[in-house]
Amino acid sequence: MALKKQGDHHIWLRKNLDGTVSAKIRPIRWLVCLALALCFVLSYYFDLQALEGSMIASRLMGFHMVDLFSGIEVIFSHGEIATNLSMGFLLVTIIYAILGGRTFCSWACPYGLLSEWGEILHKKLVEKKLIKKRKKTSTKWKFYIAACFLLSSFFSGYLVYQYVNLVGITSRILIYGLFETAIIIVFILIIEVFFLQRFWCRTVCPSGATFGLLGKISPIKIFAQTSRCDKCGSCSPECLSPEVLKVVFTDKEKRGVYLTSTDCTMCGKCIDVCNRKVFSYDHRLKKII
């Protein structure tokens, strides 16, 4: 298959500084995300009973799974949590505590994929000088917004966040064809493409904020071998949250650092773009073993 080029990089492969060629992570990640969405769709239309439900609440081969923030919201609104919900909450917590917190955002979330495609569209429009670069908003706001949603659910008794939860809305559109709710998706995408970079994922999403907290204890992280870094800065424009990479450029001892920020989605874009092999997936268990 002939390779298409995107700038100086191939879409499927990257050429390293030492002349070696390795596969890019992004197409693999996109395929995983699309495959998960397809599993939900096929399960619904053909009653496969393998992966049922949606990204908010589902069953995988009979095992219940639930979005962490949605589970917390149920507790705040109803004052209790059902047995199935608690089991799903615990299972998802264990999975993402191991895999790396916001791994969900870049490897599973259907809206995260749409937002990333919106990011590509924005860059193309900027290159053609049709629009200007957008502003960035603080990544800290999502924790305050999450608290507001929980308080609203507590006092109202309703699952307030679920009315605007883009993860659930996108998932339900794909599975059940509820296209009347697509206006919310389109509205947020317009904001992200033209005005505020990754507005939902960086600033609003309580689900991402909750998953991110698990990233602090996760053994699997992206490791930066800073002794190889020449501080060219090519990774920063590609990173979904460039603030995550600050530790790479401030590691004066050049011993290498793990990207432990709660905003790191483990997307691997830094790995894809760096031809000096600075970044790699690694685990912190070797410090214990």
Describe this structure in words.
- With 289 residues, this protein is mainly alpha-helical.
- It folds into 2 domains: 25-217, no CATH class; 219-287, Alpha-Beta Plaits.
- Helices cover 47% and strands 11% of the residues.
- The chain is built from 12 helices and 10 strands.
- The protein has helices spanning 26-46, 68-78, 83-99, 103-107, 110-127, 141-156, 166-176, 182-194, 199-204, 206-214, 246-249, 269-273; strands spanning 5-6, 9-10, 13-15, 21-23, 51-53, 57-60, 63-66, 220-224, 257-258, 279-283.
- The strands form 4 sheets. The chain has a 3-stranded antiparallel β-sheet. A 3-stranded antiparallel β-sheet has the order 9-8-10, with no helix packed on it. Strands 1-2 form a two-stranded antiparallel ribbon.
- The chain is globular and about 55 Å long.
- Mean pLDDT is 87; it is low at 1-9.
